[in-house]
Amino acid sequence: MDNSIVKFAVYDNTNFYKIELSRTLLHFTEFDFTYFWEQCIEAGKTARKTGRLPQNIVTGAKAAVGRAHPYIEACIGTDYSEIVLDCIIEYICHSERIGLEELWARCISPKNPYEEAIFRRISEYKANRAMNRWTSIVRLQEYAKNKMTFIFDTDDIGTILSDDTVRARKEYFDLALSVAANELGCSGNLLPSVKLLTPATLPNSAFVVGKVSKSIYRRFADELAEGRDLSAMEKRDCSKIRDQLAMEAYSYVKNMTRPNEIEMNFALEAIRENPAEIYYPDSLKAVIDLEFELMVRDKIYMRKCENCGRFFTALDDNTRCDRVNSSGKTCRRQYEELVESISAKAGGARDAHEAIPQADGNLSAENLETANITEISPVSSLIPPPEVREPVAVPKETEKRAQKLYNALYKRVNKGIDENEFKEWSQYLSNMKRNLKLGEASLKQYEEFLDYSDRLCKEVKLASKNKTVHAPVEKPYDMSIPAGKNGNDTGKTETPAETDENETANEISEEEFVEIAELSEKIEKKHAEKAASEASPKVPQVEGTVVSSDNVKVKPFTPQAFDSLYDAMQAGNDDDEDGDESSKKQSKPVEIKKPKWERLSREEAFKDNDKDDE
Amino acid sequence: MLFINEAAAINGLADTIIKGGVSLYNAMKYIYSIAEDDFYNISIKDSFKVVLNNITDTDCLQGLGLHIDERTCAEMQSEAYNHVLSLMVYSLAVRIPTLKNVKINDENMTDDQLYRLYNAVMEKGAENYKDIISETFLETKYLVRKGKKLQPFTADWYKTYIYTNVPELAEITNKNMFLLGFADVLFAMFYSCLEEEIRNKMTEYTADNLSEVEGKQL
User: Fold this and answer.
1) Does the predicted model carry a pTM greater than 0.90?
2) Residue B77 and residue A309: Cα distance in Å, rounded?
3) N or C end of chain A: smaller count of CB under 10 Å?
4) How many angstroms separate the CA atoms of A63 and A59, rounded?
């Protein structure tokens, strides 16, 4: 059996559930409850009008929250059966700024089943028969995140933690909670815990291993029929007489002999299907703690991704995760490509550095005046001017149209459009809006997307009426990877025109690019002249001078030297954003940052070069 | 007092009194079940709030998660205790003459109306079993006419009946003592709230929208 998977069972449920060590935890800590929350609010609004909770929405919301963690899924019919109501109660208290007591008093004479349900649920809170499961999940998510950070986060990037350190951190964290609970007067046996059992020793084992249990019962049915009824003990505190109860039950089967071979083989087959060990947690926190414990035991550690800052399972020494980010690539792959690109460019830059003194020999002012700029073109090509992008103004009508489409599709989630499909669509819409603001997408592209959305909406409406799933609308472009800033090779949002209608799309993007390039050149010239006049009236433009946007300061070119791979990568980022047309098309989608250069005096700038020459 | 539909009004008021009696009877059972499992879990103050806010809702305490069953109320499952229900309704019925003091639009109920209301309640099952309750309708009527103060509505007759007829509840146990202590407080407060409820009902029945009220009540 895979060591990274353990199984657990819960009260009142005969199924076994899986925990994939570290994966389940990561999934839970990163789970987005927004959809569940929205569904609950929707259910609450409907219930306020109709007087009862809409069961279809409640069922959908429960299914959504069940996906957060296997334990929630296992207990969705028991402990978490009222989670939607819990969420509504929390929402009412939060939005109306009232306490539970006030809400309880409001519903003390309920006028409809909805109010009665709220009153009943709050009464359960008050009587310690239940807790607000929704707030509990939210708090436990935060708990899991904090514990993960406490144990696995490091101050220095790339530090590998020793086994002892990880264990010590985990123990320290758990001990802190125990100390706090103890000081508050809460004894340890009240806190969540996990038992390690076998299928035969589970509290509901007679149902879990049902076939074998039946055959055993048949053997002792007569004796058991005359046995003393112990069910009354269920309600009493029997912690001190457990052995006595066990022996009383055993007394009815103590004369048991081994069954015949056929029956034993039958039992063997049935038992073989079940796992040898079953964990039996009594709460969600217990499962979370169990996962941490088993991760430490099996040395399955987490690490923070240097790129996206999120934790991931550390399977090797890599410091970047395998999550697909907005670029459509994993952080690891993105980094690898970046390193390759930087290595290549760094080689080119060194060549260029060597070429400059060979061309000029002496970097005096006279030489600089007459310097042939074409000689340094390979270097300048590595550091192109940044693109200037203006935000695209979206007309109000278009905005309204997008909003209408969103509302129409949102209403029909799970009624004609799949939830995931809707999420994908809405993600694309938000990316498109963001890119418009950044000037990375055009209005035409946005409208094309809305046209597509219109067609989709019509299909969904039709499917909703027929109570079927809508027929797939032909996507004019690939929506599988949500586009974002630098989300594709050109750094622009991928639109219908850019995929299927390649020719048209290419014309548009080239035109835009030419415009941007021209604008950049103008700015470059303007600043180069200004910088040259400020530095020295005799020096019109220094070789290798890099001019970019308004706030960028000027310094003479110095060949890049990298102390480490990290430095190279950082430098590579700058290179990418400034790349020329060809390099831009091949560039990796990295975050654009303006270079932070300082203006140096001429003496300061050439001091090092002069020394080198000497 | 001029009701738009007098028969309906008398019937509705009788219904309110009967429901009040049943509600009080059930409340005692629910409270008794608290002592079984939830003594430290359920606030007794909350129980009061719920009962007194739902005078005519006979199972309102279910909302607090309480249940009446063989296990939690075993001592109340006897035939003798079942007579408490008719006694409770009777204890309220004999106080009907006090409604004479309720004035709506400067009018109060006539003796005839009060007597018809009393009869309607008695017909629905009120009974002074073993003459446990010393008060009578005529006695109360006399005191009201003379303007004298009535004895407060207490649980004395209830306790007397328990001690003499329900030995399971008369035994000195934690549960039984809790029940009797609770009864002392609840009876007085309950009666006060029931008076208020009946007054509201009377106001409804004298209002113009009687037809709506009839639809709800009958």
Assistant:
1) no
2) 66
3) C
4) 6
Q: Decide: A392 and A436 in contact? Cβ < 8 Å.
A: yes
- Residue contact A127–B57, C-beta within 8 A: no
Class of residue A538 by CB neighbours under 10 A (exposed 0-12, middle 13-18, buried 19+): exposed
Total H helices, total E strands in chain B: 9, 0
Going from the C-alpha of A361 to that of each of A350, A499, A602, B105, the distances in angstroms are 17, 50, 18, 116
Contacts of A235 in chain B (CB under 8 A): 37
Residue of B nearest to A236 (CA): B37
* pLDDT tens digits for range B30-39: 999 988 878 8
Structure tokens at A33: 């409850």
On chain B, the residues whose CB falls within 8 A of the CB of A108 are: 49-50, 53-54
Q: What is the pLDDT of residues A238-294, one digit of tens each?
A: 778 889 888 988 988 888 888 888 888 888 888 888 888 999 999 999 999 999 999
At A159, the amino acid letter reads: T
CA distance A568 to A340: 10
Chain B residue with minimal CA distance to A126? B42
The answer to whether the Cβ–Cβ distance between A105 and B49 falls below 8 Å is: yes
Residue B11 makes CB contacts below 8 A (sequence gap 6+) with B120, B217, B218
Instruction: Please name the residue that has the structure tokens 């113009």.
Output: B208
Q: Please give the single-letter amino acid code of residue A219.
A: R
Measure in Å the smallest separation between the Cα of B35 and chain A Cα atoms: 13
3-state helix/strand/coil string of A482-515 = CCCCCCCCCCCCCCHHHHCCHHHHHHHHHHHHHH
Q: Which two tokens stand for residue A111?
A: 């006028």
Nearest alpha-carbon partner for B157 in B182, B189, B187, B178: B187
* pLDDT digits 0-9 by tens, B67-110: 888 888 888 989 999 999 999 999 999 999 999 988 888 888 89
| Residues in chain B within 8 Å Cβ distance of A127 | 38, 41-42, 64-65
Q: Which of 225-264 (A) contact B at CB < 8 A?
A: 235
